[in-house]
Amino acid sequence: MEAIRLNKYIADSGHCSRREADDLIEQQRVSVNGEIAGIGTLVEAGDDVRIDGEALKIRKAKAGKRRHVYIALFKPEGVTCTTDTSVKGNIVDFVGHEQRVFPIGRLDKDSEGLILLTSNGDIVNRILRKENGHEKEYLVGVNKPVTPQFLSGMAKGVRIHGQMTLPCRTARIAPFGFRITLTQGLNRQIRLMSAEFGYRVKQLRRVRIDNIKLGVLKPGQWRNLSDAELRGLLPDQKDW
User: Fold this and answer.
1) How far from 65 is each of 10, 17, 44, 123, 227, CA to CA, in Å?
2) Which of 20, 145, 203, 212 stands 20 to 30 A from 34 (CA)?
């Protein structure tokens, strides 16, 4: 193994995401070969990496099996997308997977639908980078009739959080419902965009992330991603 950065080494192990690994390192909770490690520390094969004094366990794939977990979950309303298990209704306890998993991105507590979870912390930031342009499709119910002017204004972009949202696609699907496809994920984006036109979101469901669809999952159900879905989501990924 070539020398790699410590945060990537920890994320590759499945212990946590790369960002969480940075936090552990900054808190001086990680040692390499008996020495407290720093941001930028490099790790080579055979190095003794420990977190809080416990040896880091490297998950190895069995023949014909994946090294990491990749899950599609139909998140119900009321579940919070956090790995903080002190938060009531956190998504980790809700899924209850035998391996340590964490969500890729967020879905508001009062929203429902598709969210991905994984034990592969190294891919989280790569998927979330805005420049990757991953599409996210939502079905939205509102409190007033959907008009062409409303859909056109949403599609062009709306100023929220001090910035203009990126252009997006919209379509009317019912008198009080519309479909919207985004390539960014600002906090409470659809709700705030709608509010700028005097609309209140009553129901919001995410039904697609890139090539991965919610499909027949019911609220609270989850499934493992297929090989085809993983290839579409992570075309350059070699080690699943």
Assistant:
1) 21, 21, 25, 18, 11
2) 20
